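LOG
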Amino acid sequence: MECSPGSVRRYVIGTGADGLSCTQFSGCSTTSGQVPGGVLTGTLWKTFQMPVDNSGSADEALSGNSGPGSLVPPDGTSFGFVYYPPGQPGTQPAIHKTATTDYWVILEGEATLLTDKDQVHLRAGDTVVIRGADHGWAYPAGRPFLAVSVSLDAIPASS
């Protein structure tokens, strides 16, 4: 089964009651939220403590919205994606700061990441680590953008 544009195929592997590994969840994850500028977000997984508890069989992607742009649970993580559909107007960055460390992988399209001092043009295959610093994203007009992000609760940097 092929996923529709803007969705991400997800497989969650865990351990069954018999002690053997198995696919617990699979399918196309679709967007579930929207952030300013028309950017759509979706949650793939999240955790609520460190170290992570790998027991249980609940689909943690369904435990509320914690995709990019959403709050990460205290001592937790959020794994999600952002999608900017084709045919949309270009966006201006909204500079913001999060209390997280974020790992980004650009899967499709291009975007510009702005900081207080510089800007970085990103393309598919690029990665970014944002360590709780001011930043903003701008998307060009007309072209799709798809990225995945892992956000970890973090201690803010001292100013």
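LOG (cont.) second protein
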Amino acid sequence: MPDLLTTGPADGPGLLLAHGAGAAMDSRWMDDMAARLSARGIRVIRFEFAYMAARRTGSRPPVPRADRVLDEYRAAWVKAGRPALIGGKSYGGRVASMVADSLAPEGLRGLVCLGYPFHPPGRPERLRTAHLEHLATPALICQGERDPMGTTADVAGYRLAPTIELSWAPDGDHDLRPRKALSGRTHAQNLDAAADAVAEFARTTGSQRS
């Protein structure tokens, strides 16, 4: 597996995308989203944190605290050519959100979080939002309406910076998956809608630099 996995047009706005805590950069979810974003003109560059890369060798290192992999994310951004946008799925998006403002002076233009873990499941009092209250980088968070790490009702009560835009996946869970029998929607529809929102965000925020 290469250090960086790139899909999409070479001249499209670049998006460095990190994986979630428990699934690799080439998981089915990441593959599906990368394919959708690539089809919408975005150059998606995926990478893995060291703990996840180590798991490919058979070891099982634990997931590090998010604040312990910030330098890994910064290094991946430089290696990827300093793309205009950064982000990630869940844990990866949280780490990206923690480094975004520090990269803005070097050319970063925007942040994309796909299922942000506002709090651990079942622990709504343990918020991970302090830095989001003052985030200066334009950001898009695509979130499932019933995400156990931040539902619509949860997020409505948070203080978030005005730079943050939310795109809600109807009846979606942490993977944006709806209950089709109850909502009438499919997972593909929610993923497509999220990809559309990211593509629009990329056009307006990240297109001036790839």
